[in-house]
TrEMBL record:
Keywords: ATP-binding, Cell membrane, Fatty acid metabolism, Ligase, Lipid metabolism, Lipid transport, Membrane, Nucleotide-binding, Peroxisome, Transmembrane, Transmembrane helix, Transport. GO terms for biological process: long-chain fatty acid import into cell. Its EC number is 6.2.1.3. It is found in: Cell membrane; Peroxisome membrane. The keyword Signal does not apply. GO terms for cellular component: endoplasmic reticulum membrane; peroxisomal membrane; plasma membrane. This is Very long-chain fatty acid transport protein. It comes from the Eukaryota. Residues 86-410 form the AMP-dependent synthetase/ligase domain. Acyl-CoA synthetase required for both the import of long chain fatty acids (LCFAs) (C14-C18) and the activation very long chain fatty acids (VLCFAs) (C20-C26) by esterification of the fatty acids into metabolically active CoA-thioesters for subsequent degradation or incorporation into phospholipids. The transport and fatty acyl-CoA synthetase activities are genetically separable and are thus independent activities. Esterifies VLCFAs in the peroxisome matrix. The VLCFAs are actively transported into peroxisomes by a PXA1-PXA2 heterodimeric transporter in the peroxisomal membrane. It holds the Pfam family AMP-binding. It is an enzyme of class 6 (ligase). One of its GO terms (molecular function) is ATP binding.
Length: 648
């Protein structure tokens, strides 16, 4: 393995350019003649052309992939866990800053000592490996310190979405089977409302100011409790195994109740290591993370860089579009994270002509829309964007490592066997895979959108699917008998399309496509047309149920607080660009829109409210083809639709 690592080290990102070229020349000398023979025999020139075009990219990807596998194999063999790797980092950089937060600075030693106090306290109270603690706290260094401390004891932390209230919050805490809930002072009222319904033994409250002693009746004050606890390392830290469970992370479902995905130490290490290697991150990079830490993107991909690789990180309690670049400048960040619609909000907040003044070179995240990609990187002078695709619990991750506009990643066409992800045909309306006469699934051709799936191999971390706490939910995400009897694939539930170069583009989430007048309507296509017209305003398209009609009628909600939207022009632009059946029937003009924790628009609530004039206080309109516009949806029209007097 040593010599392999040497090669990898030589051909690395910042490595010697001469050796790099030399390596390519060597590889080319072997591959090109072979390819030529193959081509002349098979007349596959086109294939050759694309293989040539993507050669550079594919060699790099192969190198990173190898590097990542070598690293993970090594950690696995040496039985490393996250707390063990963190100990090594603390030894290496005791006085380096781990976190910048507001005006605080936390060194690695401070973070380590704080987490030891947590561990020692909970050990004293009799908690042990396998116990579960639920954590609901805003972004701050203590957030990481708390779960890190618990992980040293082998305790699992359920990371609770701080935006939850009432039943959904009770549900998340309940299904985690946590014995303890730790929450921040900010959520005092929310917790007070539901605490009788929780099954936990103890509730700890964390107050921002230690001097603030008022807490909920019956709760414990976390900072006071741990004050006397020892700051020294526990022997348990050394006992963990890579397969030990670390977290429950709740998938941010835009539909249904959240599900708890199980995350092991090894998986945390895999996600972090993948980002570090594919992104060519350096230990001197300072990373800016305003993303919520209870999700994978911020809480693992981001935080992992600090805990495993020793990067300094600037945290922010809550994302703010107008402070994004100012923060990056303040903390000298060279890398910044984004998610969901964040980039669009940053663009909206930007005032033309303001000088660009920040040290950020690289951004990584998920959700940069193809429509604003170019404008974003040009406006803010971003050198590299690493857009990735992946689910917390999934085994089919992709990353765009070469700035390809709009792509979520790629898999070299030659190596689809090494990284077994596929696109298969599915029923657009239900999302169910289609099957051929042999009852097997049908693979898509280039350019054909399909359901993105990844083969499950229970023997390999990268290809495994560890499932949810809920076994039934786990089964629902697995498709069996895909390409041969007995195989199993993870179903991402997303529709992607692949081009000839191997790049993947996001098309749609299954369930986002609906049927209307016997035709399939893809919401993303309509959204693209609308976005072109309304520019950076928020909008979302979905299908709503109309009594007495087949399928779903299209509906669009647009946020237009100042009322400047012209309904005639909107109609004209939809008419021009879409077939008749795809033009939304209903239009809702909202003042603002709710977001999920990952900065996506909440479609489910809008869909449930439909076009019910009695439930919705926003302005509602219905398509009016005669007048080429959207006309107000009056109570009378609404009643007529419901009674079936007015047919759509
Ligand atoms: C949570 O558990 C408690 C106690 O078993 C139960 O009363 C409550 O209804 C549960 N709530 C939810 C939302 O599951
Ligand atoms: C706190 O709870 C205890 C027991 O449940 C009760 O006796 C006491 O009155 C409560 N105090 C306040 C301030 O609500
Ligand atoms: C950022 O860099 C500048 C110049 O090198 C330095 O003066 C400043 O202290 C740095 N800021 C932080 C938060 O480290
Ligand atoms: C996983 O490993 C076990 C035992 O080594 C073997 O029986 C099984 O076939 C393997 N499964 C796969 C999918 O490779
Ligand atoms: C894969 O996941 C299954 C189910 O959670 C688990 O039993 C198995 O140990 C995992 N295998 C590896 C190699 O992580
Ligand atoms: C899971 O599915 C089985 C069989 O379909 C059913 O009996 C069981 O109640 C389900 N469990 C849960 C928690 O939904
Ligand atoms: C729409 O057209 C109808 C005739 O087709 C007309 O009576 C009505 O006034 C028009 N409404 C508007 C808002 O222009
Ligand atoms: C990400 C986030 O915090 N979203 C929402 C959480 O809830 C508050 C108020 O309930 C909203 O203001 C946030 O936008």
């Amino acid at each position: 393995m040593y010599s392999l690592r040497r090669i990898v080290a030589i051909v690395n990102c910042s490595g010697d350019k001469t050796l790099y070229k030399w390596f390519f020349a060597g590889a080319a000398a072997v591959i090109i003649p072979l390819l030529l023979v193959y081509l002349i025999k098979n007349k596959r020139y086109k294939f050759f052309y694309f293989a040539y075009k993507t050669f550079n990219r594919d060699i790099r990807a192969a190198k990173y992939f190898l590097q990542m596998n070598v690293q993970l194999g090594k950690w696995n063999r040496k039985k490393k866990t996250l707390p063990k790797l963190f100990e090594e980092i603390v030894k290496e950089y005791p006085n380096k800053i781990a976190f910048y937060f507001e005006d605080e600075q936390w060194t690695f030693t401070q973070l380590d000592q704080f987490s030891n106090q947590i561990a020692n306290h909970f050990k004293e109270k009799g908690y042990k490996k396998g116990d579960i603690v639920a954590l609901m706290l805003e972004n701050r260094p203590e957030y990481v310190g708390i779960w890190l401390g618990l992980s040293k004891l082998g305790i699992l932390t359920a990371l609770i979405n701080t935006n939850l209230t009432e039943d959904s919050l009770t549900h998340c805490v309940n299904i985690s089977e946590a014995k303890v809930l730790i929450h921040g002072g900010l959520y005092e009222t929310v917790i007070n409302n539901i605490k009788e319904k929780l099954k936990v033994q103890h509730i700890y409250q964390f107050n921002e100011e230690i001097s603030k002693t008022s807490i909920l009746n019956g709760s414990l004050n976390l900072m006071q409790e741990i004050q006397s606890a020892s700051k020294t390392e526990l022997p348990e830290t050394l006992l963990g195994e890579p397969q030990d469970k670390l977290f429950y992370i709740y998938t941010s479902g835009t539909t249904g109740l959240p599900k708890a995905a199980v995350l092991t130490n090894l998986r945390f290490m895999y996600i972090t290591c993948g980002m570090h290697i594919f992104g060519c991150f350096d230990v001197y990079d300072i990373i800016y993370t305003p993303l919520p830490l209870y999700h994978t993107a911020g809480g693992i991909m981001g935080i992992g860089q600090t805990l495993i690789y020793g990067n300094s990180m600037a945290l922010r309690k809550k994302f703010s579009a107008s402070n994004y670049w100012a923060d990056c400048k303040k903390y000298n960040c060279t890398i910044a994270q984004y998610i969901g619609e964040m980039c669009r909000y940053i663009l909206i907040a930007y005032k033309e002509e303001t000088p660009i003044d920040h040290p950020v070179k690289i951004m990584f995240g998920n959700g940069l829309r193809p429509q604003i990609w170019k404008k974003f990187v040009e406006t803010f002078k971003i050198e590299k964007v690493f857009e990735f695709y992946g689910a917390t619990e999934g085994n089919s991750n992709l990353m765009n490592i070469d700035n390809k506009e709009g792509a979520v990643g790629f898999v070299p066409r030659l190596s689809m066997g090494l990284y077994p992800v596929s696109l298969i045909k599915s029923d657009e309306a239900t999302g169910e895979p289609l099957r051929n006469t042999k009852e097997l699934c049908i693979e898509c051709k280039i350019g054909e959108p399909g359901l993105f799936i990844g083969r499950i191999d229970v023997n390999r971390t990268i290809r495994n699917f560890t499932g949810y706490a809920d076994k039934n939910a786990t089964q629902k995400k697995i498709i069996t008998d895909v390409f041969k009897k007995g195989d199993a694939y993870f179903n991402t539930g997303d529709l992607l399309v692949q081009d000839e170069m191997g790049y993947f583009y996001f098309k749609d989430r299954t369930g986002d496509t609906f049927r209307w007048k016997g035709e399939n309507v893809a919401t993303t296509e309509i959204e693209a047309v609308i976005t072109n017209y309304i520019q950076l305003k928020d909008s979302i398209v979905y299908g709503v149920v109309v009594p007495g009609t087949e399928g779903r009628a299209g509906m669009v909600t647009i946020v237009d607080p100042d009322g400047t939207l012209s309904r005639e022009n909107l109609y004209a632009s939809l008419k021009k660009n879409l077939p008749l059946y795809a033009i939304p029937v209903f239009l809702r003009i909202a003042k603002s829109m709710d977001l999920t924790g990952t900065f996506k628009i909440k479609k489910k609530d809008l869909q449930d409210e439909g076009f019910d004039v009695n439930r919705i206080h926003d302005k509602l309109y219905i398509i009016d083809a005669k007048n080429s516009t959207y006309s107000p949806l009056t109570n009378e029209i609404y009643e007529n639709i419901i009674n079936g007097k007015l047919r759509l």
